Amino acid sequence: MCKDDVRDFVEAGSSECHFLNGTQRVLYVQRYFYNQKEFLYYDSDVGHFIGKDEFGSKDAEIWNKDEALMADARSSVERFCKYNYEWLDTIKVNGKKVEPSIKISLMNPDEQSHTKQHMLVCNVYGFYPSEIEVKWYRNGGEETEQVQFTEPYHNGDWSYQILVMLETEMEKGDTFTCEVHHSSLKTPHRVDWHPQLSDAAKKKMATGILGFVLGIVSFVAGLVAYMKGREE
Questions:
Q1: What would the DSSP string read from start to end of 60-119?
Q2: Which of 4, 33, 76, 137 is the most exposed place for a label (fewest CB within 10 A)?
């Protein structure tokens, strides 16, 4: 007889940076929990993982032998703690603002020549603070109906990123514009995008051109032969 055995559990981790006298002495601690009970942690002062129970001790023994994992943990003081401390301190003291970068891309570009509806993605990234407004335009007119967007999310270095998608039809000669409003910019930043032929369409066009050229060559050769025949 088979009996279902369903058990719930929660596993979590945390990373802590402790600063003494600015960045003169920094302690990095990485903790792991199972059902709210800490069973394993890494201490940068000690330089390796330490188990707090039998289960954690077995994991610590294995992890401490993993050279790549240990190198990553030991680099966390410089890579994670000091880097973010200096970045955040600069922002707090100077009220620093970071301008966004913008990249437009077409989802499923290989299908561009076969479907009417397409999805354009405006990726706005590397900006601070998080408040931002992004608009889509087609041939100078603002698009609002088929626009979707994510919430601004952390990149891991105190900067933010957002994706704004536009579902639209495309025709030859269209111009699509992603416009970004942000407190770091004196005027809105605009990037234009124009529909391009897909690889399949380019191949078809190249094949058509080649066929046309070969046809012209054959026609000219035939005409020359015909004229010579008449002269004889």
A1: HHHHTT-HHHHHHHHTHIIIIIIHHHHHHHHHHHH---BPPEEEEEESSGGGTTT-SEEE
A2: 4
Boundary residue ending a domain (59, 94, 129):
94
CATH code of the domain covering residue 22: 3.10.320.10
Q: Are 94 and 106 in contact (CB under 8 A)?
A: no
Q: What pTM value is reported for the model?
A: 0.49
The tens digit of pLDDT for each residue in 104-142 reads: 999 865 544 455 678 999 999 989 888 999 999 999 999
Residue 206 CB neighbour total at 10 angstroms: 10
Q: Domain range for residue 145?
A: 101-193
Asked if the structure places residue 224 within a domain, the reply is: no
Q: Which residues face 226 on adjacent strands?
A: none
Inter-CA distances, 14 with 33, 59, 63, 176, Å: 9, 17, 17, 43
Tell which of 33, 59, 94 closes a domain. Answer: 94
Q: What whole-number distance in Å separates Cα of residue 65 and Cα of residue 147?
A: 50
| Angstrom distance (rounded) from CA 159 to CA 90 | 13
Gap between the Cα atoms of 153 and 10, Å rounded: 24
Q: What is the pLDDT of residues 181-212, one digit of tens each?
A: 999 999 999 999 998 744 444 454 445 444 54
Token readout for 72 is: 């990553």
